[in-house]
Write a structure and sequence with these properties.
Length: 150
């Protein structure tokens, strides 16, 4: 009975891992080289595709964040909107942790194992990519999602 449950769990994990990788969009192979560090490789093989996959969700989450903060974001100039996004991601730990969870939640088990080896540095890379993604979408934030992580 225990072996049967183990097999079911293993098959479910294998199916989950395959499914997660299958739904991710492809990113440009220009970002890959043989002399990349482990962190760079993780950024390009995992973080970029995951963040691209989650882009529409990030947009909606940010719209909700702005609404919970009295929609002042929408009254700001373009430069101030960019600063608002940067401050929200850098200083609001609850919001930042929520964004991190949306990325980490679609890691495979193997990717999570790599991530926890150097989570501090990878979190910085992750938040930088999410921030840049939101900033690149700032003019479309009210209209439609964009996708710049090709």
């Amino acid at each position: 009975m225990i072996i049967s449950n183990f097999k079911k769990t293993f098959l479910l994990m294998d199916t989950r891992n395959d499914g997660l990788k299958r739904v991710r969009p492809e990113v440009s192979s220009e970002n890959f080289s043989s002399i990349m560090s482990t962190d760079e490789r993780f950024q390009n093989t995992t973080l970029r595709p995951v963040i691209k996959l989650q882009n529409e969700l990030f947009i909606e989450v940010f719209k909700n964040y702005a609404a919970k903060h009295k929609n002042v974001f929408y009254d700001l100039s373009l430069q101030k909107r960019i600063e608002y996004i940067e401050n929200a991601i850098q200083k609001d730990m609850k919001f930042r942790n929520s964004l991190k969870g949306m990325v980490i939640g679609v890691f495979t088990v193997d990717e999570y194992s790599v991530y926890i080896q150097n989570s501090s540095a990878l979190n910085k890379r992750m938040m930088h990519l999410v921030k840049e993604q939101l900033i690149d979408c700032v003019q479309l934030l009210e209209v439609e999602p964009c996708g710049v992580l090709s």
